[in-house]
């Protein structure tokens, strides 16, 4: 039997770091070849650390790793992409942290899933630019799909009939749409408008460059946020902390936009 090399290199996006001992960080990272993985960055919390600045959450870094008995240890790190625009903007960083928390919550450790790595990396790059409002629902739908939780949006999850236009609801516990004839007891059932259903289907089947051109009405966006939030809570069996924060930031932005657009602000003194 051959033993694996003691030192190996990988690239990774840092999902989060938690203090460990006096000066170390325990890193949770997403890598292209190993999926989610955890490692120790020794001394990374010291001011003069050569590692610390390269291993902030949401950074993509090239790493040299040493195999440890329990956890591997980062011996060298070099930042490849810092996503500075994302990390310096409240709206962007809250979206990115929400994405990172979702990736962390939905993926098992040490199970490679390159499509998820790619989706996460490309979403961070899009957030660096002019990310349209469809980015977050697009990310959530495709993350669910790549993790094996693709929501059903064409048939009733209870009786398997094809949905008739306008006659549908959404059952997050069952992971999809419900026809109006089915009333399974004890289920949370959410209303689902035809517009929102069409948008969800569109985002689910299209590639990003096409999905990004979609214009979304605020009402559709809110309904989608509610449905996908409920679905993710069911899949993950817990609340996503960062998404509550993101919701608050988005709400504040909407209120500011409404206040700026209200006629009272246009009256000249
Ligand atoms: Zn049905």
Q: Which structural class do the helices and strands define?
A: alpha+beta
Strand content: 15-25%
Helix content: 25-40%
Q: Supply Rg.
A: 21 Å
* Count of domain modules: 2
How are the strands of the biggest sheet laid out side by side?
A: 1-2-3-5-4
Model regions low in confidence, pLDDT < 50 over at least 5 residues: 265-269
Q: What is the overall shape?
A: globular
Oligomer: single chain
Overall pLDDT metric: 90
CATH architecture of the largest domain: Up-down Bundle
Question: Can you give a write-up of this model?
Answer:
It is built from eight helices and eight strands. The protein is α+β, with helices and mostly antiparallel strands and 269 residues long. It has two domains: 7-82, OB fold (Dihydrolipoamide Acetyltransferase, E2P), CATH 2.40.50.140; 86-261, de novo design (two linked rop proteins). The strands form two sheets. It has a five-stranded mixed beta barrel with strand order 1-2-3-5-4. A three-stranded antiparallel β-sheet has the order 7-6-8, with no helix packed on it. The longest helix is centred in the last third of the chain and has 21 residues, at 241-261. It is globular. Zinc ion (ZN) is lined by residues 156, 158-159, 161, 178-179, 181-182.
């Amino acid at each position: 039997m051959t033993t694996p090399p003691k030192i190996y290199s990988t690239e990774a996006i840092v999902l989060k770091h938690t203090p460990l001992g006096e000066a170390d960080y325990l890193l949770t990272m997403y890598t292209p070849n190993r999926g989610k993985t955890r490692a120790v960055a020794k001394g990374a919390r010291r001011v003069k650390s050569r590692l610390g600045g390269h291993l902030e959450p949401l950074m993509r870094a090239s790493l040299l790793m040493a195999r440890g008995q329990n956890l591997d240890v980062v011996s060298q790190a070099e930042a490849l992409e810092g996503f500075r625009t994302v990390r310096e903007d409240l709206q962007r960083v809250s979206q990115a942290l929400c994405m990172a928390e979702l990736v962390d919550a939905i993926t098992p450790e040490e199970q490679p899933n390159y499509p998820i790595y790619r989706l996460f990396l490309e979403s961070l790059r899009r957030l660096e630019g002019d990310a349209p409002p469809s980015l977050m629902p697009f990310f959530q739908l495709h993350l669910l799909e790549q993790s094996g939780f693709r929501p059903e949006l064409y048939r009733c999850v209870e009786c398997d009939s094809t949905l008739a236009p306008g006659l549908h609801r959404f059952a997050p516990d069952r992971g999809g749409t419900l026809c109006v004839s089915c009333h399974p007891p004890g289920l949370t059932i959410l209303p689902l408008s035809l517009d929102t259903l069409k948008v969800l289907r569109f985002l689910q089947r299209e590639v990003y460059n096409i999905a990004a051109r979609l214009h979304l009405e605020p009402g559709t966006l809110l309904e989608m946020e509610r449905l996908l939030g409920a679905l993710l809570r069911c899949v993950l069996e817990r609340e996503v902390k960062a998404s509550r924060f993101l919701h608050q930031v988005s709400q504040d932005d909407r209120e500011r936009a409404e206040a700026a657009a209200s006629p009272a602000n246009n009256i000249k003194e």
